[in-house]
């Protein structure tokens, strides 16, 4: 039987198949017959069969992928039918997928071989292929087994076109579009993150300059070592709230916070119009210096004195939110020079 089979294959079958060339048809490479074993050799597709893809839950299939695979199947079967080839054994296992996710129809045109080997006596037909396609389409769309939608009403094959709005879909083009969109979105995301980073950097620099002198902050940002520096012509200002312990005992914690925040916001606005530098605020203590870190000659005492008078004037009209009837008084102390010249401490109403 081997010699008869080989003669039939090479003279009636092989020459019909060798002229079939289509992107969605898995090409026939040849036959293998040795030691009683017969095999058909076709092109290898690394993604295996459509059935394998559908049953592998690790493979995520969105509608774009599904429609692309089904359109590949339609184009492959259309090519065969136009050349009067009926498949006869179409199923998801006979649809293979290559490394580019292109579906190719395989196991087509082997009916004479199957008859010779007495493995099939059925005559294939285009109608049977259409029926098989409908089953595969259902498998892909719902990712279920054949006939799992028996309870649902049947729908025509033309309706498939409406799912994709009549557009032709190629999975490689779609993937390229997805990559382009991803690249565009990534560029926008990087731009947004860069803007956010710049804003946060500005906030950090602003906070740093509020905590440290600008020259010191700049040196720290550059990674330089800040060397200690002495200043001889300097005037310091100290102040605290008279009776702060009593006020705190009569207030809620958040009310104390509001009091200090309101008062120091007022002070901060005043010192901005004088040549002074706020050194620190701890609790109700407020400390300001003039003559450092920027030297101003002999003007340091006058700058602090004028600032003190402005602060004193503003406190006279200041009201606590939670106890507006209670007056706020502050204690101010000044110290000027290198333990010399001026030292004044006085309680102001």
From TrEMBL:
GO term, biological process aspect, one: intracellular signal transduction
Residue ranges constituting the Guanylate cyclase domain according to the UniProt record: 235-337
First-listed, main subcellular location of the protein, grouped into a coarse class: membrane
All residue ranges annotated as the Protein kinase domain in the record: 1-216
Alphabetized GO MF terms: adenylate cyclase activity; ATP binding; guanylate cyclase activity; peptide receptor activity; protein kinase activity
Classification of source organism: Eukaryota, Metazoa, Chordata, Craniata, Vertebrata
Protein name (record): guanylate cyclase
Keywords of the record: cGMP biosynthesis, Coiled coil, Lyase, Membrane, Nucleotide-binding, Signal, Transmembrane, Transmembrane helix
Region forming the signal peptide: none
UniProt-listed Enzyme Commission number(s): 4.6.1.2
Coiled coil (UniProt feature): 172-207
Subcellular location: Photoreceptor outer segment membrane
One GO CC annotation: plasma membrane
First-level EC class: lyase
Keyword Amino-acid biosynthesis: no
Membrane topology (UniProt): Single-pass type I membrane protein
């Amino acid at each position: 039987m081997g010699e008869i089979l080989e003669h039939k294959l090479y003279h009636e079958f092989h020459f019909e198949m060798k002229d079939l060339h289509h992107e969605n048809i898995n090409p026939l490479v040849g036959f293998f017959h040795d030691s009683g074993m017969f095999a058909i050799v076709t092109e290898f597709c690394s993604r295996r069969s459509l059935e394998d893809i559908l049953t592998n839950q690790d493979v995520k299939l969105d509608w774009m992928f599904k429609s692309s695979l089904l359109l590949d199947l339609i184009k492959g079967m259309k090519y065969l039918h136009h050349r009067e080839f009926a498949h006869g054994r179409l199923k998801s296992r006979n649809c293979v997928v290559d490394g580019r996710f292109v579906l190719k129809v395989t196991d087509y045109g082997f009916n004479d071989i199957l008859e010779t080997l007495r493995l099939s006596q059925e005559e294939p037909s285009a109608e049977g292929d259409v029926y098989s396609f409908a089953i595969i389409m259902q498998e892909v769309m719902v990712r279920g087994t054949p006939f799992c939608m028996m309870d649902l009403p049947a729908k025509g094959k033309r309706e498939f076109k409406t799912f994709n709005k009549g557009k032709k879909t190629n999975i490689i083009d779609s993937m390229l579009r997805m990559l382009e969109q991803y690249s565009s979105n990534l560029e926008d995301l990087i731009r947004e993150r860069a803007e956010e980073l710049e804003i946060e950097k500005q906030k950090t620099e602003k906070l740093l300059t509020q905590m440290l002198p600008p020259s010191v902050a700049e040196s720290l940002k550059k990674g330089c070592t800040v060397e200690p520096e002495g200043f001889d012509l300097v005037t310091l200002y100290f102040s605290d709230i008279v009776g702060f312990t009593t006020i705190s005992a009569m207030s809620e914690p958040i009310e104390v916070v509001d009091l200090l925040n309101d008062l120091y916001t007022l002070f901060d606005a005043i010192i901005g119009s004088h040549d002074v530098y706020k050194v620190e605020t701890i609790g109700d203590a407020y400390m300001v210096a003039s003559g450092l870190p920027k030297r101003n000659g002999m003007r340091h005492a006058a700058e602090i004195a004028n600032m003190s008078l402005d602060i004193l004037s503003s406190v006279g009209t200041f009201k606590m939110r939670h106890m507006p009837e209670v007056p706020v008084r502050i204690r101010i102390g000044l110290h000027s020079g290198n333990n010399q010249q001026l030292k004044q401490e006085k309680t102001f109403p």
